[in-house]
Task: inverse folding
C-alpha cells in the first residue's frame, strides 16, 4: 500500500461497528495510485458490467491507466481540483 502520510492508529477499539469506526485514522492515500501501480499491463484489472447488457467487459491494467489518464485530463481541463467532489 502506497501512502503519502502514515496512520496515527489502525482503529479505535473503543468504537463499536454501529458507530462506523474510522480505519487508519490520519493516513492519506490515493486509491488510484495503488490500483494503477500494477506492472503487468495485460492482466485483468477489473470486470465491467453495464445495466441492460449481458456482456462483461474485461479491462486490462494498461487500458485502465489509459482511461484514467483520459478522464483525469478532461477533469483538469474543466477546472476540477484536489479536494473537489466528483459524482
Result:
Amino acid at each position: 500500500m502506497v501512502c503519502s502520510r502514515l496512520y496515527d492508529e489502525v482503529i479505535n477499539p473503543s468504537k463499536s461497528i454501529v458507530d462506523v469506526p474510522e480505519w487508519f485514522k490520519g493516513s492519506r492515500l490515493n486509491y488510484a495510485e495503488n490500483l494503477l501501480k500494477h506492472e503487468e499491463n495485460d492482466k485483468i484489472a477489473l470486470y465491467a458490467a453495464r445495466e441492460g447488457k449481458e456482456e462483461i467487459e474485461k479491462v486490462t491494467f494498461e487500458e485502465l491507466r489509459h482511461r484514467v489518464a483520459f478522464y483525469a485530463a478532461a477533469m483538469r481541463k474543466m477546472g476540477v481540483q484536489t479536494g473537489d467532489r466528483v459524482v
Remarks:
- The two ends are 25 Å apart (CA to CA).
- The longest strand covers residues 44-49.
- Strands lie at 44-49, 56-60.
- The chain has a mean pLDDT of 90.
